[in-house]
């Protein structure tokens, strides 16, 4: 009896859980009638058929298929596997390559034609449902009802879906935010005050400036939400599923596609107060930081606060033109336990001094050479073994295909039987050839010449001066070279000296050399250098 697996799926948590049991019972009855032996079942509950990503049951099924745990897959219908043309065709292609037959209870044995038709019908059905849902949402919005989630400042009306009512406790906070902003406070100041007063934020742990500012194009943030002024705006954005990640991402719609409905009963602030807030925002508007040409520092985006783990950003320049840095959580929300300001050049010097001293140590160089040779030997052995295995299988397939062709030519077998066998073997042969093209040819292990190690020492002697001078002159390549060595730099206060810092560096050297990469924890400008992730990973391309 053929070993058989069953797969079942339903789409949303609004459907009955018994849908899975009903599908499994139907597939088991089909297997009994066809004389199939069910050895495994897989299911996905409340998972859309629009993507294979996030469907653990289907992914487990494909893993078991690669391990040849079953010979036949039974589903109620092909749309249970997928409602996407690309995904359904890919599942069929891979299972066919593994010699696994797909059977649908209502359609029988699945072939390429059926996959194409059902994939097209399934995707059209899914897209048609999306259009009808949006049409229904538009109708609800025209009636002044909400088509989405709950906005801060409002609560649900029980028994009346889409209806909202003002939540007075949160509405008072909204009015306070608008009033303080119009009176001259910045979003950061407002966020600090709300956190100080222990006001629960709309989501997350704390208020921050982005909660209040939001995005003007998408209408996010308290100050941009026109619902607070009694205007319901729908269809600002559309949601699109990323085919590579399966996650939904939002894209802004043109303003002509927005749907605006007056809902004066939901107004929390007056039109005059709302317009005054928008006027102040326009007056304060500046070019977005991502569009500004700013000098790139070698540690930009790498700094972390030692007190709370948040990122660090620049905090102005003092009278001596030295750049100061501060914890972003302290700046945005005021929630950091140690909101100290540091000088950027002090941290950069600590990083450069520490890395240079540690990398020069003889133990690091010796360990690097040993690990280099061991890794190159392992990679070469793995490559040679894989190529040998593929070449052996290629020879077997070539001999078998020649035997079948000769049998057909001499009339020793039925061409209707031997022909498809030859075609299947030839398809596998092509796959082996394609895989061989991707396997690099066997190469010898290249030893490091002693002169290379001497050159390594000379280069380390020039590292600190060269990088520091290049970065100071604004050379982006020098900054990028330094960033290739370091992943994060965590900055701590040094309690033993005034103005001192300790830095903990997570780079890429430890992944290759282990904990001995930084043997002495060298101090640099009051800074402690600690290994984290290593300087060069032991992967192909070493």
What keyword list fits this structure?
Recombinase family protein, coiled coil, 5-stranded mixed sheet, Hect, E3 ligase catalytic domain fold, Zn_ribbon_recom_dom, 16 helices, 3-stranded mixed sheet
Arithmetic mean of pLDDT = 77
What is the CA-CA span between the terminal residues?
50 Å
Number of strands: 17
Helix content: 40-55%
**CA radius of gyration:** 32 Å
Low-confidence stretches: 290-295, 509-542
Tally of discrete structural domains: 3
Q: Describe the sheet with the most strands.
A: 5 strands, mixed
Produce a short descriptive summary.
Residues 151-287 form the Recombinase domain. The chain has 16 helices and 17 strands.
Structure description:
By secondary structure, the chain is an alpha/beta fold. It folds into 3 domains: 3-128, 3-Layer(aba) Sandwich (Rossmann fold), CATH 3.40.50; 154-284, Putative Large Serine Recombinase, Chain B, Domain 2 (Hect, E3 ligase catalytic domain fold), CATH 3.90.1750; 297-383 and 445-542, no CATH class. It is 46% helix and 15% strand. It has helices at 18-34, 56-66, 78-81, 85-97, 112-142, 168-182, 187-196, 209-213, 271-284, 328-332, 344-359, 362-409, 415-438, 450-472, 476-485, 510-513; strands at 3-9, 37-44, 72-75, 101-104, 108-109, 154-156, 164-166, 231-234, 237-241, 248-252, 259-262, 303-305, 312-317, 323-327, 341-343, 486-493, 501-507. It has a 5-stranded mixed β-sheet with strand order 2-1-3-4-5, with helices on both faces. A 3-stranded mixed β-sheet has the order 12-16-17. The chain has a 3-stranded antiparallel β-sheet with strand order 13-14-15. Helix 1 links the parallel strand 1 (3-9) and strand 2. Helix 11 runs antiparallel to helix 14 (450-472). It is flat, with a radius of gyration of 32 Å. InterPro entries: DNA_bind_recomb_sf, DNA_bind_recombinase_dom, Resolv_N, Resolvase-like_N_sf, SSR_resolvase, Zn_ribbon_recom_dom.
């Amino acid at each position: 009896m053929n070993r058989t697996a069953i797969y079942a799926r339903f789409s949303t948590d609004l459907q009955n859980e018994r849908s899975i049991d009903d599908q499994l019972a139907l597939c088991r009855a089909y297997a009994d009638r066809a004389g199939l032996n069910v050895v495994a079942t897989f299911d996905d509950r409340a998972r859309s058929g629009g993507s294979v990503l996030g469907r653990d049951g289907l992914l487990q099924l494909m893993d078991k298929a690669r391990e040849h745990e079953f010979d036949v897959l039974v589903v109620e219908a092909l749309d249970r596997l997928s409602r996407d043309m690309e995904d359904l065709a890919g599942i069929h292609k891979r299972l066919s390559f593994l010699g696994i037959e797909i059977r649908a209870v209502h359609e029988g044995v699945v072939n390429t034609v059926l996959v194409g038709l059902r994939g097209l019908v399934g995707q059209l059905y899914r897209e048609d449902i999306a259009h009808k849902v949006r049409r229904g949402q538009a109708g609800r919005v025209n009636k002044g009802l909400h088509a989405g989630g709950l906005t801060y400042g409002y609560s649900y009306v029980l028994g009346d879906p889409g209806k909202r009512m003002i939540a007075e406790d949160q509405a008072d906070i909204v009015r306070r935010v608008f009033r303080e902003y119009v009176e001259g406070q910045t979003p950061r100041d407002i966020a600090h005050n709300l956190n100080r007063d222990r006001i629960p934020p709309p989501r997350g742990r704390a208020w921050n400036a982005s909660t209040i500012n939001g995005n003007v194009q998408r209408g996010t943030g308290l100050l941009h939400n026109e619902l607070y002024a009694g205007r319901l705006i729908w269809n600002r954005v559309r949601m699109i599923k990323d085919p590579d990640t399966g996650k939904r991402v939002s894209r802004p719609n043109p303003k002509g596609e927005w749907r605006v409905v007056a809902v004066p009963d939901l107004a929390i602030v007056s039109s005059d107060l709302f317009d005054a807030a928008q006027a102040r925002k326009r007056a304060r508007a500046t070019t977005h930081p991502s569009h500004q040409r700013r000098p790139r520092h070698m540690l930009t985006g790498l700094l972390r606060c030692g007190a709370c783990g948040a990122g660090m950003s620049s905090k102005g320049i003092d009278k001596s033109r030295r750049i100061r840095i501060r914890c972003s959580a302290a700046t945005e929300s005021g929630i950091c336990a140690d909101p100290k300001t540091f000088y950027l050049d002090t941290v950069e010097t600590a990083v450069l001094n520490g890395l240079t001293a540690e990398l020069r140590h003889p133990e690091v160089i010796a360990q690097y050479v040993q690990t280099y040779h061991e890794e190159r030997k392992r990679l070469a052995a793995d490559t040679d073994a894989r190529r040998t295995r593929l070449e052996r299988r290629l020879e077997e397939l070539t001999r078998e295909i020649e035997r079948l062709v000769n049998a057909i030519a001499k009339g020793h077998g039925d061409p209707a039987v031997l022909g498809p066998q030859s075609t299947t073997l030839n398809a596998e042969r092509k796959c082996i050839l394609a895989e061989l093209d991707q396997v690099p040819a066997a190469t010898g292990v290249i030893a490091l010449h002693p002169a290379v190690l001497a050159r390594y020492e000379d280069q380390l002697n020039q590292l600190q001066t060269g990088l520091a001078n290049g970065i100071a002159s604004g050379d982006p390549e020098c900054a990028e070279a330094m960033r290739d060595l370091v992943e994060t730099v965590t900055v701590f206060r040094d309690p033993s000296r005034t103005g001192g810092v300790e830095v903990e560096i997570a780079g890429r050297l430890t992944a290759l050399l282990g904990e001995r990469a930084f043997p002495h924890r060298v101090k640099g400008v009051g800074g402690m250098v600690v290994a984290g992730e290593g300087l060069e990973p032991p992967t192909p391309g070493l």
